[in-house]
Design a protein that fits this description.
alpha+beta, three-stranded antiparallel beta sheet, 3 strands, 54% helix
Length: 91
């Protein structure tokens, strides 16, 4: 699952600590100095990557995927996974 904090760490590599209070994120660097974060950019990137969160619960378990491959082959597995990918496409 991707979280807002993950996006902050991706966009702001100098951030080492994030404290959250409600919708407010306070970020600091390795010297414990505040890092200004553009939350509109963070939210935009989160929106772009949120398909990962939507897909995750839809995929069959790894055990079920392996069972499908064993009994029906790779093409059946690809078709099953494609259903979820098509339902929640990358933006």
């Amino acid at each position: 699952m991707i979280r807002v904090q993950d996006i902050i760490f991706q966009l702001y590599t100098d951030v080492v600590t994030i404290n959250r209070s409600g919708d407010v994120y306070t970020c600091v660097d390795k010297d414990n100095k505040p890092v200004t974060v553009d939350m509109s950019a963070v939210n935009a990137e989160f929106t772009k990557q949120n398909y990962k969160n939507e897909r995750a619960p839809e995929y069959p378990s790894v055990v079920d995927q392996l069972d499908l491959i064993y009994h029906s082959g790779i093409d059946a597995w690809k078709a099953k996974i494609k259903e979820t990918k098509d339902k929640y496409p990358k933006p």
